[in-house]
Amino acid sequence: MTTNSNLQIKIATQSDLAGILKLQSENQISQGGSLSAELTQEMIQEMMSDMPQIVALVNNEVVGFLLTTSQAVNKKRNVPIVDVMFTSYSGNSDSYIYGPVCVSNTQRGKGLAQLMFKELLNQVPNREGVLFIKSDNESSLRAHEKMGIKKVSSFVFNNASFDVFAYLFPNS
C-alpha cells in the first residue's frame, strides 16, 4: 500500500465498489471517455474475489482503478474483444488480463496509473499481464510504454485498431 498525504494506493475492497462503478461510468466513450466496456457490479465483485483490484483514493474518494481478470474468470464470460486479443497474442498459461485502468480527469498526469501498476506488481509478481489499448489512444499508449510494457501484437475489432501489450516483471 502506498500513502502520500491524501493519496492512498491499495487493494480494492467492497467499500470501494461504488466509487469504481461511478468512475467507470464517467469515463465511458458515450461520456467522452476512452473506456470501451462497462463492467457490472457483479463482474467486478467476482474479479475482486479472484485477483487483486487496485484503487487510488484521494480523501477516501476513488480517483483511479486498475482491474485484472484471470483467464479462468474470463472464460466464464462472453467478451469477444478479449477473445480476439488472445487470438492475436495467447500469452502464457498463467497470464491474466490487465485492465481496464482509469484515472479521473482531476488526477491525470500525476503518475497514478504507474503507482497502481507498481502496487499490482507487488501483489501479483512473476505473472504475465496482457492488455489491449485502442491504437489512437495516445495518452494510454505513452503511459504504458513509460511503465516498460511492450507491444507484442495488434488486431482489429469492430473496425477499430488495437495494440496488444504484455509484461512479465519479477518482484523486485
Give a description of the structure:
The chain is of the alpha+beta class. The protein starts with a strand and ends in a 5-residue tail after the last strand. β7 and β8 (160-167) form a beta hairpin. Helix content is 32%, strand content 31%. The model has no long low-confidence stretch (mean pLDDT 89).
Q: Would you spell out the secondary-structure blueprint of this structure?
A:
Elements: E1 2-4, E2 7-11, H1 17-26, H2 41-50, E3 54-58, E4 61-70, H3 71-75, H4 80-88, E5 96-103, H5 112-123, E6 129-134, H6 138-146, E7 150-157, E8 160-167
Helical run tally: 6
**Beta-strand proportion:** 25-35%
Element pattern in H and E: EEHHEEHHEHEHEE
Give the helix level as a range of percent: 25-40%
Spans of 5+ residues with little confidence (pLDDT < 50)? none
Strand order of the largest sheet: 1-2-3-4-5-6-8-7
Radius of gyration of CA atoms, rounded to a whole number: 15 Å
Distance from first to last alpha carbon: 15 Å
Basic shape:
globular
Number of strands: 8
Strand-pairing-aware structural class? alpha+beta
Average predicted confidence as pLDDT: 89
Q: How would a textbook summarize the main sheet?
A: 8 strands, mixed
Summarize the structure.
With 172 residues, the protein is an alpha+beta fold. Helix content is 32%, strand content 31%.
